[in-house]
Write a structure and sequence with these properties.
465 residues; alpha+beta; Outer membrane efflux proteins (OEP); four-stranded antiparallel β-sheet; elongated
């Protein structure tokens, strides 16, 4: 068979070219799944890179867990170590990789074929056909694909920002809740002990014949109610600590030392009104939806562009079995007769309409949520003012009753009733303050105002400005 060794040389050359091109490829690296939990229990071991925090109040605040954690440090931990935010950042990394891929040129296509005359005359020649082609439409669609990918990166980045704001708001609310629970538990325990003491005293008095049983029944009911309130608050405190650890990505048994907790000043109504008036330009989730709509608009344009014929151009070098060489070119052209990409155009158009409707619905819902929360907060503030007005008089009455009881000028029942009334109002006031502060945090978040005020006071003990 003539020139078969030449064919082998061509094939070997093509293989060597392929090996050379594969030399720059990424090699596989195994990444086995973990088998042990990775949530840390030591806060000091969590790296906090303040330069990567996108909120000025967090980036400018020192992080030192040795003397306890204030609300801003809790927010810093949440942004840096929250499990959901880690996944969101991974999604953003995928989007960056997709944007990089969208800007790459398509690889050219190399075609090689060889024919032999079998059987044939001794002077027959091996035929070959070599060709290189490139899809021109794929090149023409690169700018649109790159633009869509860039909009998608912006969408995910803004979505990550909105998620960070939500995590910060939740961390602040949990911080307030945990600190409030720490104040509520001693009051509830005192009420539980006081009501139980009265019941035990009354029960002994009934056993001695010094009191009727109806008084014991009322004391028993009050003692059971006080104990239930105390145990409910214990459950709530345990759940609040667990929720905070989970939000911060910490091990369940982590014990955090929280300091500070002074109530932050709420945003004034004039600032909220201004923020609501420019909500579409402030809310990160609305900006993310706008970027998603822009990306889909580009996809719609791309679908319209693909209605035109797909064009592929190549160059060919060939030799037939009679040893005649030819050179030329080839063009592959799709004929837009039946499909014309009309189905994809309709899909992309309908998807764009859905994204537009989603943006409008989210915008309407944002205004409605803020209006409802502001109205609800006004009611809670009214309740809090009413409780705070009567709290000083109840506190004074409780102190007077305590002195009178110690001087044996007041019965145990009267003293206990007066003391329990003050404790109940104190618990109610603390719960209302927590509710109002949580509403303030939520309203500021929904209005797109800075999640952690830049004017928040730093810790005093061992931080340097």
């Amino acid at each position: 068979m003539p020139s078969r060794s030449c064919a082998y040389r061509h094939i070997a050359g093509a293989m060597l070219l392929g090996v050379a091109l594969l030399g720059g490829c990424t090699m596989y690296r195994a990444a086995p799944l973990p088998t042990q939990p990775a949530a840390p229990s030591n806060v000091s071991r969590i790296p906090i890179d303040r330069a990567t925090l996108r909120f000025p109040a967090l980036a400018s605040h020192p992080f030192d867990p040795s003397d306890g954690l204030d609300s801003i440090e809790i927010a810093m931990l949440a942004v840096s170590n929250n499990p959901d935010l880690k996944l969101a950042r991974d999604d953003l990394g995928i989007a960056h990789a997709q944007s990089y891929a969208a800007g790459l040129l398509p690889d050219p296509q190399l075609g090689i074929s060889s024919d032999y005359v079998t059987p044939g005359p001794g002077d027959s020649t091996r035929a070959f056909n070599y060709g290189v082609s490139m899809d021109l439409m794929a090149i023409a669609s690169i700018p649109g694909a790159k633009a869509a990918a860039t909009h998608n990166v912006e969408k995910l980045d803004l979505g990550l920002l909105w998620q960070e704001q939500q995590v910060i708001a939740q961390a602040r609310r949990l911080f307030v809740k945990v600190r409030t629970q720490d104040e509520l538990l001693p009051l509830a325990r005192q009420a539980d002990t006081l009501a139980q003491t009265r019941y035990d005293t009354y029960r002994s008095a009934v056993a001695s014949g010094n009191m009727t049983s109806d008084s014991v029944s009322a004391a028993l009911t009050a003692a059971q109610d006080a104990h239930k309130q105390y145990t409910d608050l214990q459950h709530a405190a345990l759940q609040a600590h667990a929720d905070l650890n989970a939000l911060l990505g910490l091990a369940p048994d982590t014990e955090l030392t929280l300091i500070g907790g002074e109530r932050e000043a709420a945003a004034p109504d004039i600032a909220l009104d201004d923020a609501v008036g420019h909500l579409a330009g402030r809310r990160a989730d609305l900006l993310a939806l706008a970027q998603g709509y822009a990306a889909q608009d580009v996809q719609y344009r791309q679908a319209i562009l693909k209605q035109f014929p797909s064009l592929s151009v190549g160059f060919v070098r060939a030799r037939d079995t009679s040893n005649v060489y030819t050179s030329g070119f080839q063009i592959n052209l799709s004929l837009p007769i039946f499909n014309r990409n009309q189905g994809n155009v309709a899909i992309e158009s309908a998807t764009r309409q859905r994204l537009r409707d989603e943006y409008q619905i989210r915008l309407d819902q944002a205004y409605a949520d803020i209006a409802r929360l502001r109205a609800d907060r006004a009611i809670s503030q009214g309740q809090l003012r009413a409780v705070e007005q009567v709290l000083p008089s109840l506190s004074q009455a409780s102190d007077d009753a305590a002195h009178a009881y110690q001087a044996r000028n007041l019965t145990l029942g009267a003293y206990t009733d007066t003391r329990l009334a003050w404790l109940a109002k104190s618990i109610e006031a603390l719960s209302l303050r927590e509710a109002v502060e949580a509403q303030d945090i939520t309203i500021e978040t929904l209005a797109g105002i800075a999640m952690v005020p830049a004017s928040a006071a730093p810790k005093e003990p061992n931080h340097e400005q």
